[in-house]
Amino acid sequence: MKFILTKDYDDMSRKAANVIGAQMILKNNSVLGLATGSTPIGTYKCLAERNAAGDLDFSQITSVNLDEYRGLPHENDQSYYYFMHDNLFSKVNIDCNNTYVPDGTIADAEEACSKYEEIIAATGGVDLQLLGLGHNGHIGFNEPADVFPKLTHCVDLTESTIQANARFFASKEEVPTQAYTMGIQTIMNAKKILVVVSGSDKAAIVKKAFFGDITPQVPASILQLHPDVTIVGDAEAFAEIKDMI
């Protein structure tokens, strides 16, 4: 694992965009696995700025997103499809026909998940997967569990995750309680993984996930077994590991 210590959120966003940008330059038709949530927003802003400046070209890029709320249509402003278009796709020269998000409107969970695995396979596999890190160690919507779920699946969101996402909705009651998400095996199949993490509230889980036991109770801990992982974090997020990296 490679740790990149940055001074603050903006610096973290720039450094993470550097990693993604390098991947795009080295392979202009890369398949990027993308994440939602508040942490990657700054990274997407940096990527859009570099695209506007002519430094990055998204025209041959394919993207596959980690997850989507079950039951939310694309038009819902809290869907992850909407999030990606609002924060990145509408701001760069990517072909939207080459952008994929799990279809939350497919009621049959088995059908929705198997279709998404087929899409990922058809891309040829993810070259670089971007991840955030949940307070309980979840990656995507893979919550703490007794086993590591392998492939894309439907998950019941934990109370802590629902609480964390409630700030994006008018009320907690509007937060979906289920989501479709890539499984751990699907994530681990990516050739490279990039984790972005910011803030003092993530310091404890950073230490637990990347220096603790590998356990499905801390889903991100499995990343310790991946051959090419880079974690970009600010000083607050790395506060408990600064003497270990």
Q: How would you briefly describe this protein structure?
A:
The protein has 245 residues and is α/β, with parallel strands linked by helices.
Oligomeric status: single chain
Shape: globular
Specify the CATH architecture: 3-Layer(aba) Sandwich
Give the helices and strands as they follow along the chain. EHEHEEHEHEEHEHEHE
Determine the strand fraction and express it as a percent band: 15-25%
Q: What count of domains describes the coordinates?
A: 1
Text of the CATH class: Alpha Beta
| Distance N to C terminus | 10 Å
Strands side by side in the biggest sheet:
1-10-9-6-2-3-5
Let me know the number of strands. Answer: 10
Mean pLDDT over the residues: 96
Structure description:
- The protein is built from seven helices and ten strands.
- It has one domain: Rossmann fold (3-Layer(aba) Sandwich), CATH 3.40.50.1360.
- It is globular, with a radius of gyration of 17 Å.
- Helix 1 crosses helix 2 (41-52).
- It starts with a strand and ends in an 11-residue tail after the last strand.
- The protein has 245 residues and is of the alpha/beta class.
- The protein has helices at 9-26, 41-52, 80-87, 109-123, 159-165, 184-188, 203-211, and strands at 2-6, 31-34, 62-65, 67-69, 99-100, 128-131, 153-156, 178-181, 192-197, 229-234.
- The strands form two sheets. The chain has a seven-stranded parallel β-sheet, with helices on both faces.
- The model has no long low-confidence stretch (mean pLDDT 96).
- The longest helix has 18 residues, at 9-26.
